[in-house]
Amino acid sequence: MNDSYNVSVPASLRREIGQLLIGSLPATTITPEIRSLAREFQLGGVTLFARNVEAPEQVAELSQDLQSLAAGLPLWVAVDQEGGRVARLHAPFTEWPAMATLGRSGDATLAYKFAAALAAELRTVGITLDYAPVLDIHTNPANPVIGDRALGEDAETVATLGAAVIRGLQDNGVAACGKHFPGHGDTSVDSHLELPVVEHPPDRIRRVECVPFREAIRNGVAFIMTAHVLIPSLDEEKPATLSPRIVRAMLREELDFDGVILSDDLEMKAIADTYTVQDAAVQAIAAGCDGVLICHGSVDVQMTTLEAVIHAVEDGRIPFKRAEDALARHRRAKERFLAAPVAPGRLPALRQVLGCDQHQRIADEMARYL
Length: 370
Description:
CATH class: Alpha Beta
Distance between the termini: 53 Å
Number of strands: 10
Order of helices and strands: HEHEHEEEHHEHEHHEHEHHEHHHH
Number of domains: 1
Largest sheet: 8 strands, parallel, barrel
Low-confidence stretches: none
């Protein structure tokens, strides 16, 4: 911190700082505390988890209620809906097999059809951002967290099928988020529990791990999520999420990604065992992330994190232009995907889309490769 550097954050920017947070809810409805947070800050969005989901009609109503919190830009209503073991939405939504089935099929057309059907179901309940596809390459059979979430075991398969999933989602109105940059595939520990270390040299990272991300960028992916992994050859001290060398220098400048960079959940132990959520958010945004995820549902943590970001802009730890750039990227993404209001369906429309025969046939085709 430089005590001689102090800027007064305009009230408009102070409120808009909330766009840099995709927060979370503790329950199935919007609490008074979340409403208070949204009144003070223009909340960027909310990620839905299993604790927030009772039934399709309730999700549709919750999505609509969340949009009522928007003072200006609409909110992202986001979810981790990959298929397989990472799915927050279950029957009567279509229950999709794990993404490894697409890799075994080698069929980009099937990958596109899957993603288009998934997008239709998400939009029907008002969800506009899916943290998919996984672009990690499953090169380590002992990996406890990626496994069958990956599209394949080689870079080209993951790149080709990942791009098809991105197009299928985004052509049908749902923003895609490729993850976890610069690669979580060759790790042997779960970043939810501790900090994984990737020992590859930079040339290997560029030659293998970066390939699916390059293809995702070429196909216009809206978001890329960072990995909570330590790569000593790129940054000996800071995990990727907090590293300017990885986020800004590699992803933004070298790979020329012009979309929104999101952190993974800052409450995962890979980060939280060493950093407070507030400090991690400040470091992530300073490093080049345009937004942060806070997923455990505590409104106090979300509020104090936004206050910490504002203080960091005031004292120069986050340059003013860095904050303005991050906010501009969110605005552009929302103009791209949320320009037309998302109107969640009601009971008859929901039942015509969710788990319909056409979607089930696609799931059955994928399941042939289990």
